[in-house]
Amino acid sequence: MADHAVRRGAVLPTDTLLRYRHGGALTSRRYDHLWRRIGEHLPWVASQGVSIHWLRHTTLTWVERHFGYGIARAYAGHTDTTGPATATYVKADLSAVAAALAAMTGQSHPMAASDG
Prior knowledge:
Elements: H1 2-7, H2 28-41, H3 43-48, H4 52-67, H5 69-75, H6 94-105
Helix pairs in contact: 4-5, 5-6
C-alpha cells in the first residue's frame, strides 16, 4: 500500500491513499468493482459479501462493542446534528477515537488518551 501511495503522489501520512492516477477520489462503483474482482480470487470474500460497506459496518460494530456508542459514532464521523436525541448527549473526543483505533490495530497512536 505504501508503494501505491507513492505512485499516486502521496507525500504525507495523512494524504489520501486510494485515488485515481489523476488524483480524483474513487467512486462507490469503483470500490464495488474492486471487491467483485477480489472475490474472484478469494472465494470467502464473495461468499461473505465483503465490501467497503461491510468493512465499515464490521469496524464500527467492533468499536461500539469495545468502546461504546459515543466513540463509535465519532469514529464513523457522524455529526451531532442528526440522529436520535441521545446523540446530542453521547460524545467522544479525538483522543478516545484514537485510542479505539490503537486498540483495534494493536499499534500505538500519538493522539490516543494515555492510560496513566
